Amino acid sequence: MWLWILVGFVVLILVASFVLLLLVPPTPGINVTGITITSSDNVCGLNGATSSGFTANPGSVVDLAFSVSGNTTSSGGTANCTITAVTSATSGFLVSGTNTPLHIPTNANETLEFNVTCPNADYSGTLTLSFT
């Protein structure tokens, strides 16, 4: 008799655990839906540029890379430009490990690489980066 009570108790705990897992939503983590670039001086013509987003766990570090070409001139050509810094304009995100200053010659493409440390709390939305 005690054996059946014990088996019933174990089954009850397993069923309750399963139901609890179904009722508690998973943590969404970090869901950056897009990356927007702002630049007060429109360095390399990047002001208003966008990029696709990423997903990550809270507190994790994400490696990002942007392909950048020379600054577009009013005549449609390109000119030399230099990116001196990248910072986060979105609260909770931290930019580090940038390969700046990045000198970009006329009509050339360079890759700007940096790390973004995500906040420790869940986030869903756009990440805004400021380039100078």
Structural notes for this entry:
The protein has 132 residues and is of the alpha+beta class. It has one domain (28-131). The protein is built from 1 helix and 11 strands. It has one helix at 2-23, and strands spanning 30-38, 50-56, 61-69, 71-72, 78-79, 81-83, 86-88, 94-96, 102-104, 109-117, 123-131. A 4-stranded mixed β-sheet has the order 2-1-11-7, with no helix packed on it. Strand 4 and strand 5 (78-79) form a beta hairpin. The mean pLDDT is 88.
Please provide a brief summary of the model.
The protein is an alpha+beta fold and 132 residues long.
Beta-strand residue percentage? 35-45%
* Tertiary shape: rod-shaped
Q: Number of helix segments?
A: 1
Amino-to-carboxy terminus distance: 76 Å
* Main sheet properties: 4 strands, mixed
Indicate the percent of residues in helices.
Answer: 10-25%
- Count of folded domains: 1
Rg, nearest Å: 24 Å
Low-confidence stretches: none
Oligomer: single chain
SSE string, helix = H, strand = E?
HEEEEEEEEEEE
DSSP strand tally: 11
Secondary-structure content class: alpha+beta
Strand order of the largest sheet: 2-1-11-7
Mean pLDDT: 88
Strand and helix map with partners:
Layout: H1 2-23, E1 30-38, E2 50-56, E3 61-69, E4 71-72, E5 78-79, E6 81-83, E7 86-88, E8 94-96, E9 102-104, E10 109-117, E11 123-131
Parallel strand pairs: 1-11
Antiparallel strand pairs: 1-2, 3-10, 4-5, 6-9, 7-11, 8-10
What are its keywords?
132 residues, alpha+beta, 1 helix, 11 strands
